[in-house]
Amino acid sequence: MAQSRSLICKGCWQTMHVPIALRGPLAVPFRIVGLRPSRMNPNTCTLCELMFERVMKATKITIDATILFADLRAYTRLSQSMSAASMGGMLDVFYDECAGAIWDHDGLLNKTIGDAVMAVFNFPIRQADHTRQALLAAREIQRRIERRKAEAGLELGVGIGLHCGELSFGEFGRSHRDLTAIGTVVNTASRVQGAAEAGEILVTEAVRERVGDLTDAGAGQPYPLKGFDSPVMLYRA
Ligand SMILES: [Zn+2]
Predict the structure, then answer these.
(1) Ligand 1 center to residue 12 CA distance, Å?
(2) Which of 4, 7, 13, 101 might form a disulfide with 140, Cβ 3.0–4.6 angstroms?
(3) Per-residue model confidence as pLDDT tens digits over 4-23
């Protein structure tokens, strides 16, 4: 994968107009003081991850963001017949393709959880159109996985769910500090992903309201989601 990577941190440039060099000879002095490309988004830096304490003087912030969950569907079924090595290889392909698609749209690959990934759009790189970028990333994940399937004859299928709204983002936990997003928006996005079939992207009403021009004009369908009293309207995107 040859993604174009930013030479300076997009997050620091956007919030502080400070050019933190991430690559090339100019990055050397920054590496010496411990500033490196973030593992969650290589176009941002490790300072961005600490921005809460250093810049915002808070450990958490409330932001409007879009959450993307993507889950490898064939994994459980295949894991019974595959060797550990080829299973690991398939997960690597999945993680790599998700990461590439998410970073191309300036999202943060926040977590890999077993055979799923969770991404946050609108932090640390702020995007006025973060919901649109998240949907474009979701579509790119599906395209990339389709291509890999065809190339390698791998039985891969990915279900994706999106939801957006206000959530709490920051450092949680005392002994093991974890930079992540929490709140009902995150839980809902996870449930929406659970309802998506392999090869499908499902979005909530809130997402459709923001990116209606990108989704099918078709009516949504009510889905019974775990943890919800009544069915939730979801839309194929
Ligand atoms: Zn930065």
Answers:
(1) 4
(2) 101
(3) 799 999 999 998 899 999 99
Q: Express each pLDDT in 166-215 by its tens digit.
A: 999 888 877 777 888 999 999 999 999 999 999 999 999 999 999 977 77
Q: How far is the CA of 99 from the centre of ligand 1 (A)?
A: 18
Confirm if 43 and 10 have CB atoms less than 8 A apart.
yes
Expressed in angstroms and rounded, the spacing between residue 38 Cα and the centre of ligand 1 is 8
**Domain boundaries along the sequence of the chain:** 10-47, 60-236
Our measurement of the distance from residue 206's CA atom to the centroid of its chain's CA atoms, rounded to an integer in Å, reads: 18
| DSSP conformation class of 197 | P
Quote the DSSP letter at residue 89.
H
The CATH homologous superfamily to which domain 60-236 belongs is: Nucleotide cyclase, GGDEF domain (3.30.70.1230)
CA of 93 to the centre of ligand 1 (A): 27
The model's pTM: 0.90
